[in-house]
């Protein structure tokens, strides 16, 4: 009887191990029942080894570490000095975790490569983009222009290779017989990105004029970086109505 009572109190006061995300809800989404991790929460790689991250940021959650679609609690050491949730976010702890073990901690979406605005009217649902789409020649260039935060394209200025292995053999960039291929599939690696500069800014001039109507959106600078000014998915009229000054459209 004493053993049963002891077991009851141990279970009552033991650290919670149920699969519930608490504390810092960044990189999560509500699925109608619970908060779960978005694909971009774990889309990056850890800077140090996964094994080292598991030691630095241990978890007692029954589901293990954060993964796309699950509700595993973020390891506490990833964002706080507390030992139970709810817990206040300690920014220094979170910064260190994002720098070293962003995948283990479910913080990929807050790293530089994943933390940027998507365009206002994307051609696909940015929140539902999968890793296979991020690596697909059919989707990569569209995602880079419309949903850069979904695949870690925030630092690419809207220009990515359509295939992922262009850098394997850089001689293809100068191979006469490969020019059609590299112009289509290896634009970033081979320096074939249209209308972009090294800084990632985009300038589009439509007609000749000395002044432009004011931008109607405060997001034009970010949209331009993500390819809005050159994306033919939007008509010239649409680009002009929203970002005439930024896109230099008369």
Automatic annotation (TrEMBL):
Question: Start and end of every ShKT domain?
Answer: 108-154, 159-193, 209-250
Whether Signal counts among this entry's keywords is yes
Q: According to the lineage, what is the superkingdom?
A: Eukaryota
Signal peptide location: 1-19
Q: Do you know which InterPro entries this protein is assigned to?
A: ShKT_dom
BP GO terms, sorted:
innate immune response
UniProt KW keywords: Disulfide bond, Signal
Q: Give me the disulphide-bonded residues.
A: 159-193
Please report the name of this protein according to its UniProt entry. Answer: ShKT domain-containing protein
